[in-house]
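Amino Acid Chain and Its Fold in Token Form
===========================================
Structure side: the spatial fold of the chain, written down as a series of whole-number tokens.
Position: the record begins directly beneath this header, with no further notes in between.
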Amino acid sequence: MSVAGLKMITNKALVAVKKVINPYVPIKVKEDFSGVVTANVRTSMNPFDEIALDEARRLKEQGILQSIVAVSIGDNCQEVLLQALASGADRAVFIKTEQNLTPLNIAKILKYFSLENQINIVFLGKQAIDDDCNQTGQMLAGLLNWPQACFVSKIIANKDQITQIAIEREINNGIEKLQITLPVVITILDQKSNEPRYISLPNLMQAKKKVIEVIVLQDLPLNLSLDNTQVLRTCLKPKRSTGIKVSNVIELINKLKNEDKVLR
């Protein structure tokens, strides 16, 4: 196969970006305990998705990727997609729905979009900070029957060998190094070797000139399952009690055994 043919295989990436409550905003629980208050609350891109988008941009700068499309699913995701465009995405797609989608349904949507747009690398953050799920990437890889690399902390690519990438991922025993052939689904954990980059005002102004594509979820030929999850109660974690100092190990063991009942 010619080099030109190889480039046609590996030149498109999809980055899934999720709108979440800004991590620096205090969370408030609804009075009926059915969820958290989202009305008039500042939102932003899921921080792990932000890292994934930055990693895709770096691969594009290295000549591995030709284009990056950012996809967000939900309602009122334009601000997040504007941030994605200002951060290096070439195209932004808003899949509009007011449904509460499960990770499996989101994986089905991303599978459809990946195949329709001849995507070769799908990037996701390792998890979402609102529901704390980290299932979508794994489910998407299973649906596509693609290799997957989860909790990746480093990607090493060579533009002379653009059908393969090397990755490092964190496991319990340390760092695992793998060589993966594209197409692939990657979930990003961190970028320990990269300096964070921030959106500049000129890039933001340029992003505002671009068109965000809007697709209504119901218009897609997908058979999505209903979300049967029922939230019983949402509450803030209890405040941690003030710690105390003990004078010796014997006193510590007595308190753990007789007061806290964690030792027998």
Observations:
- The two ends are 68 Å apart (CA to CA).
- The helical segments are 3-9, 47-61, 78-86, 103-116, 136-144, 201-208, 249-259.
- The longest helix spans residues 47-61.
- DSSP finds seven helices and eleven strands in the chain.
